[in-house]
Specification:
The chain is mostly helical. The chain has 2 domains: about 60 residues; about 40 residues, Irregular (30s Ribosomal Protein S14, Chain N), CATH 4.10.830.10. The protein has 3 helices and 2 strands, in the order ααββα. The chain has a two-stranded antiparallel sheet with strand order 1-2. It is elongated and about 70 Å long. The two termini are about 35 Å apart.
């Protein structure tokens, strides 16, 4: 996947790492809640596992076209400025310009 800006690349990498860490956390919590496993094994899992490195708060929504980080419409994944430009051109179905 080719991304335009350095910020988009770093955000993409953070999202991949966060998804991976989230899956690890779900597995860890399901093992810890499993009552069939002996207490010693659950305690070992609790002590052995490392902390999650990527927090979801570090991930920013960015425009997929320009990389702008503010004014993002999550339904489309683009910024408000680019949304207006794309709707004026007619690239977004159901949206028309008022001009």
């Amino acid at each position: 996947m080719r991304l335009k800006t350095k910020k988009l690349k770093s955000d993409y990498i953070k999202r991949l790492k966060a998804n991976k860490e989230e899956k690890k956390g779900i597995r860890k919590s399901s093992l810890l809640k499993n009552k069939i496993l002996p207490l010693s094994i659950r305690y070992h899992i609790l002590n052995k596992s490392e902390d999650i490195q990527i927090k979801k708060t570090q991930i920013r929504n960015r425009c997929i076209i320009t990389g702008r980080s503010r004014g993002i419409f999550t339904k489309f994944g683009i910024s408000r400025i680019e949304l207006r430009n794309q709707s004026n051109v007619g690239n977004i179905p159901g949206m028309t310009s008022h001009e």
